[in-house]
Write a structure and sequence with these properties.
By secondary structure, this protein is mainly alpha-helical. The protein has one domain (about 15-215). About 35% of the residues lie in helices and about 5% in strands. It is built from eight helices and three strands, in the order αααβββααααα. A three-stranded antiparallel beta sheet has the order 1-2-3, with helices on both faces. A hairpin with a 5-residue loop joins strand 1 and strand 2. Helix 5 (about 125-135) packs across helix 6 and helix 7 packs across helix 8 (about 190-200). The protein is globular and about 45 Å long.
């Protein structure tokens, strides 16, 4: 399925990006006032342990859209956890194991191509190390980061517990993969480091729908892990 935009996302102006060492990681006042977020945990109803497991399995058409975004086959169970402004999948919830039984610890996977580019540019700018240092130096953020990890594991456990409770994205001790933490925040609203990233890249500079929903067909199968 061809991509529909006629240009790639614009590169952000480094001077316009927030300082990762000072950008707020707490939920917005509007979110707290609406009752969707807790000022203590920074979480809303989507962070409940059973929420991810309650999501309906992706339809064949939705799965075709995800595979078109990824450019290859997606193995295992998928559910759409968040959508972009065009109604296309932006984040999917995966299963804790692949069909052959291989553990797959990443519960939320970022499928939006424009968002992947935007977050990747922050990683290239050294945000992983900067945010790891910030987590290590700010006790409140460190606690919120650890709480996000515990919430992630609780949601994943509802789909099937993995031996050793493997973490993802560097959780809980450091910041390793901004894509994973951003996907967690977009899906659940409960990841403090992902919230910093989201405030830097949202609204994502997307030149148009990345795939054509009217032409949702899966690409030829190719080897690859789950949704990632």
């Amino acid at each position: 399925m061809p991509r529909t935009p006629n240009r790639s996302p614009r590169r952000p102006d480094p001077a316009a990006l927030p300082d990762p060492l000072h950008a707020s990681w707490r939920p917005s006042r509007a979110a707290v006032a609406s009752g969707l977020s807790s000022p203590q945990a920074g979480a809303d109803a989507r962070a409940e342990p059973g929420w991810a497991a309650s999501l309906p399995e992706a339809s064949p058409a939705e799965r075709g859209l995800v595979e078109a975004q990824l450019g290859r086959e997606a193995r295992g169970s998928l559910a759409v956890a968040a959508r972009c402004r065009y109604g296309l999948p932006a984040v999917v919830r995966t299963a804790s194991r692949l069909p052959d039984g291989t553990p797959f610890p990443t519960l939320y996977w970022l499928t939006c191509p424009a968002a992947r580019v935007a977050v990747g540019r922050l990683e290239a700018a050294g945000w992983n190390a900067l945010l790891s240092a910030r987590v290590a130096g700010e006790p409140d953020l460190a606690r919120a980061h650890a709480d996000a990890h515990a919430g992630y594991l609780a949601q994943r456990d509802a789909l099937g517990r993995l031996p050793g409770d493997p973490g993802v994205g560097g959780l809980p001790g450091r910041v390793k993969c901004l894509h994973v933490l951003y996907a967690h925040e977009v899906a659940t609203g409960s990841d403090p480091v992902g919230r910093i990233v989201r405030r830097a890249v949202d609204p994502v500079d997307c030149p148009g729908p990345c795939v054509d929903p009217s032409r949702a067909t899966a690409p030829a199968p190719a080897p690859g892990p789950a949704a990632g």
